Amino acid sequence: DADVTQTPRNRITKTGKRIMLECSQTKGHDRMYWYRQDPGLGLRLIYYSFDVKDINKGEISDGYSVSRQAQAKFSLSLESAIPNQTALYFCATSDKAQRGTNEQFFGPGTRLTVL
Amino acid sequence: SQKIEQNSEALNIQEGKTATLTCNYTNYSPAYLQWYRQDPGRGPVFLLLIRENEKEKRKERLKVTFDTTLKQSLFHITASQPADSATYLCALAWDDYKLSFGAGTTVTVRA
């Protein structure tokens, strides 16, 4: 869905490196999310943001940080990457006006490999 | 903590048959439950939502049921087609802003 874009799409990095994954959306949604997906574990929530000044930790935030630069942009950083952060990362958005549904719109994902 | 389990095995079915996927959860029931479709190399796409006070929802060839006594949702794809081949994720919501996802079930429809 071109409404939610993620860069880069693929990244290989080394242990200890700092890396940033970026997400942009044109849907005008106020809520944005970062998930990681691992085989057999499903999607797990890392961080979520209701607006530029409201950022919250998800279930697996250790080792990650985020920045909501604008309503349309939400970045995920790995300050010092480690191999068990190798995963598929997804950004998603939802519209708080759609209360009681929380239908989420996902980006295409970033495949991150930490050597 | 809540645990969400989907069919542990991949599902292989013949075109035209009905695929039935399960999503089981522990502890207390969510306010609503969603199903998403995910194709290889792409992000999940929302399909259907069913609330805790609803028994069944339909959308074209898709049907979802929700049994809070059994703590289970069933997802049916009727008259399946090869284009239905994908991974299907269930997602549970206990509040209005966070979802908890199952690991997904991969469906392959043979022509």
Structural notes for this entry:
The complex is a heterodimer of chains A (115) and B (111). With 115 residues, chain A is mainly β. In chain A, 0% of the residues lie in helices and 57% in strands. Chain A has no helices and 11 strands. Chain A has strands at 4-7, 10-13, 19-25, 31-38, 42-51, 54-57, 64-70, 73-78, 87-94, 105-106, 110-114. In chain A, strands 2, 4, 5, 6, 9, 10 and 11 form a 7-stranded mixed beta sheet that branches. Chain A has a 4-stranded antiparallel beta sheet with strand order 1-3-8-7, with no helix packed on it. Chain A is globular. With 111 residues, chain B is mainly beta. In chain B, strand 7 and strand 8 (72-77) form a beta hairpin. The A-B interface holds A 1, 4, 31, 35, 40-45, 48, 50, 58, 90, 92, 94, 96, 99-109 and B 4, 31-32, 34, 41-46, 49, 51, 89, 91, 93, 96-104.
Computed CA radius of gyration of chain A, to the nearest angstrom: 13 Å
Chains forming the largest contact: A-B, 28 and 24 residues
State the distance separating the first and last CA atoms of chain A: 30 Å
Share of helix of chain B, binned = under 10%
Q: What proportion strand of chain A?
A: over 45%
Share of residues in helices of chain A = under 10%
**Which stretches of chain B are poorly predicted, pLDDT < 50 over at least 5 residues?**
none
Describe the global form of chain B.
Answer: globular
Largest beta-sheet details of chain B: 6 strands, mixed
Number of helices of chain B: 0
